[in-house]
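Supplementary Text 2. Reproducibility record for the structural model of the 297-residue chain.

All settings were left at their defaults, and a single model was retained for analysis rather than an ensemble. We include the record here because the model underlies the residue-level annotations in Supplementary Table 4.
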Amino acid sequence: MNAAETLFPNFRSVEVETSGARLSAVVGGAGAPVLLLHGYPQTKAAWHRVAGPLAEKFTVIAPDLPGYGDSRVIDPPQDWGSKRWMGAQLHELMMSLGYQNYAVVGHDRGGRVGYRMALDLPDSVRAFASLAVVPTSEMWRGADKNFGMGAFHWYMLAQPHDLPERLLSADPDYFLDLTLEKMSGGLERLHPVALAEYRRAFREPSVRHAMCEDYRSGAGSDERLDLDDRSSGRMLAQPVLVLWEEGRTFGGGRIPIDIWRQWAADVSGRGLAGGHLLAENAAADVLADLIPFLERN
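Retained model, structure tokens:
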């Protein structure tokens, strides 16, 4: 039994070629479609504890982000780590599977792709749920010494090619395990098959390069798009659910829901115990809020 069969029983694996990528995903369930987008430095395996329960009520689509996991970028533009480009590829995936209208749930980097999709594709994205994420421009706005010391990878991975790629290649397993240890509060809290998938993917140079391109865009075009939206007064038209790490604040002591209320009119949510990896370490609490939110919308 392969990793997908172990982590996502009763799901089928699909591979879809879009205009610029070859995307790997698992699909399961029936009902209204829900797109699950994982974060750094993970793969679609991050959703294994919530995908099954969601599939009892919805059609669940969980892809590897473009360049991550088993998804490969095949025709990249210059700024191919941008969330606008990544979102466009994932929308092509959904259209190829026959889903023109869907909800998006995003964690970490996947959350950044998700809210950009909600802004760019308001006729397709009917609802958006953010796990442990506030908009990229808000992160940079609140960046200080504590942020830099705790999230040094935001600066490291955004450095010009190929400095971070060379640094990561020295000992990929060490860097990945160190990152996940901090995010999870202990590697023993992660499913061993999921952890093996994260390690397998991170050992691939093209995956590490894609992650760096993701963060380079976060320090460039992604922030510029956010600032343009704020200056024009553009907001998310969809209902937004915000779930975050309990006790986490951003620049000026703001909590995520207060930040998101400046970006959307219909916002609900709460802080959850479980650290950064909410879908894995606080799955029951995530589902308790996420399922009613998706049913309402």
